[in-house]
Design brief:
Elements lengths: L15 H6 L23 H20 L22 E2 L7 E9 L2 E9 L9 E7 L6 H8 L2 H7 L2 E5 L17 H16 L1 E11 L1 H12 L6 E5 L20 E7 L5 H14 L3 E4 L9 E7 L5 E7 L6 E2 L7 E2 L6 H10 L7
Parallel strand pairs: 4-5, 4-6, 6-7, 7-8, 8-11, 12-13
Antiparallel strand pairs: 1-2, 2-3, 3-5, 9-10, 10-11
Length: 351
């Protein structure tokens, strides 16, 4: 049975210095994503009070259930093995928006699927899977990243799964489910039923969803051609083994805010990723007009690419987003457009 979702305020051991010393963006919204305090734009004391109450309820529930609630530590707890096969709700592939379910292991995952007007059964289209922050939903990340319009223009599918209890079992949190197995199964289902192109399957996400994208790139070998990671990083105990790296080529585009309180962790994680894949670093062209920071591009030994945007004044947000809880509307970097352009240029490479 899936555990209930709580903000486990234990402070993962790889984050406490950052929590004490960095204030992050312009406000102090408490967002329990990554089992940490997340400072983002548009903060309010009311949010802090609500999540403080949530923490108390979590601790009370932990006492009453012998600790069997989802106040996970940095490793996210043990995996729950999932079935290799999936049961699905009845669905008829067609253009438009679809609310669907996929049974995997002990859980039934909900997800939204957007099929462009040019969709037709049997026609192979690229697939983008977008993963939300914690706690969150596919609907929320859909609102934030605003990629459906681009999907209609460029003719690709977009899936927005809901993590169990509002999160994904990623690198430092959130949950105990086998979300790597779920993502494998979701891709296989969308390839079989919705004619997604297996050579053009992509994964993107913000915060907990970005961490999950990194984990899936390593552990779901050969499934994803490229990933887009926003306000997230390759860190935590899970990544400590020196051989923890993709075994088949997966290109990466990432956006890191210099004002994000986890900047040091994210930047270190980026360096670790490039080192393990034996990438050569080159500094590329300028950032979009009005933005300040750096843009670096690296080609790795396995043929994959790493594009990294490090943006001044950017906190824990999705740059260029106009709505949503983690929207960075004042950051003049169109992350969604840049991610799709990167994906479009990076089909799956042979192993």
């Amino acid at each position: 049975m899936a555990s209930s979702s709580c903000t486990g305020w234990t402070g993962p051991p790889d984050y406490p210095t950052v929590l004490r010393s960095r204030s992050g963006g312009r406000g102090s919204t408490v967002d329990s994503d990554r089992n940490k305090v997340v400072f983002a734009q548009g903060a309010s004391a009311a949010v802090i009070r609500r999540l403080s109450v949530r923490l108390v309820l979590c601790l009370v529930a932990a006492v009453g259930t012998g600790g069997a609630v989802g106040c996970d530590g940095p490793t996210g707890g043990p995996h729950t093995s999932g079935s290799a096969s999936a049961e699905t709700s009845a669905e008829t592939p067609a253009p438009g928006d679809h609310s669907l379910t996929l049974a995997f292991g002990a859980n039934t995952y909900k997800y939204l699927l957007h099929a462009p007007p040019g969709y037709g059964p049997g026609k192979r289209l690229p697939l983008v899977i977008a993963l939300h922050f914690y706690p969150g939903t596919g609907k929320e990340v859909r609102e934030t990243i605003g990629i459906d319009g681009r999907a209609d223009q460029a003719n690709f599918l977009v899936a927005y799964p809901d993590g169990v209890d509002g999160g994904f079992n990623a690198l430092v949190c959130c949950g105990t489910t086998d979300d790597v197995g779920f993502l494998r199964t979701l891709v296989a289902h969308l390839v079989q039923v919705w004619s997604a192109d297996p050579d053009r399957v992509y994964l993107t996400g913000i915060s907990n969803g970005g961490d999950m994208s990194l984990r899936a790139a390593v552990e779901a070998s050969g499934v994803f051609a490229a990933i887009g990671v926003v306000s997230a990083g390759f860190g935590g105990p899970r990544v400590e083994p020196a051989d923890y790296a993709p075994k088949s080529p997966v290109s990466l585009i990432t956006f890191i805010g210099a004002a994000d309180q986890y900047f040091d962790i994210f930047r270190t994680g980026l360096d670790t990723w490039r080192q393990r894949l034996h990438c050569s670093r080159t500094t590329s062209g300028p950032l979009p007009a009005g933005a300040r920071g750096t843009y670096e591009r690296a080609r790795c030994a396995d043929g994959s690419d790493v594009d990294a945007y490090v943006i001044e004044l950017m906190g824990h947000v999705w740059p260029g987003a106009n709505s949503g809880r983690l929207a960075g509307s004042d950051i003049p970097v169109p992350a969604t457009e840049l991610i799709w352009a990167f994906f479009e240029a990076h089909p799956r490479l042979p192993r």
